[in-house]
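Hello forum,

I keep getting stuck at the same step: I have a sequence, I want structure tokens, and every attempt I make locally crashes halfway through. Rather than fight my setup again tonight, could one of you with a working pipeline run this one for me? It's a single chain of 244 residues.
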Amino acid sequence: MTPPAAAAGKGAAAQASPSQTLSRGIRALEILAAAPGPLTIAELADAMGVHRSVAYRILRTLEDHSLLVRDDAGRVQPGPGLAVLARGVSRNLQSAALPELTQLANSLDMTAFVAVWDHHDCITLVTVEPRHSGATVAQHPGTRHPINAGAPGIAIQSALSEEEWDRLATGMPYRPEAAEARRKGYSASHDEVIAGVSSLAAPVRVPGGRPAALAVVYIRSAHDPDAVGAAIAESAARIERQLA
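Reply #2:
Ran it on my machine without issues. Output:
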């Protein structure tokens, strides 16, 4: 007979351990979101590192909730249910940012987006491409890159002092560029995330939450970078006033 103390310990351990099935389902959605196109069940099972029968059971559950769909060939891809969930992520920030993103994208002929802080990464929350432009840099929602590379990460750091950043114990150093961005109101980077691509960003302070970044990306532009940076900072300030 198992002693009561041991049984209690086992129960606590079971409660503390994450659900493997849930973890696998989330991993499946992450793989599908990052894939360039639909995947076969075999391809997804290989990417997940599980047997095809396990992947199939997980996919059936996700399909029941419209989080993925299958095409006529049986390949799977993200479903409309994800878009419904995405609308609820930082809803106020998305609503406040969209008009500013549209104005920036069309006036600068650059892709404009909002990036949010997630652990050691920046994740693109919402993006707008210019209406009339031949070649722009695509920046899809859900795209992630390390927070210690690129203008959005610098901008997010610049919303905090070096002392505030250190207190968060992120394990990442406070970049010297963040101190400069804190002084100027915006950050700049080139070649850090994608070779040949430049980015400018300004912090957006979110009440009760971690700072985000309002940013643009471009390959080349006739606009003066300082003028673009100032415009982004002004847009970020307007978003902050709406969120206040």
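Confidence is low (pLDDT under 50) at residues 1-17. If your local run keeps crashing, start a new thread with the error log.
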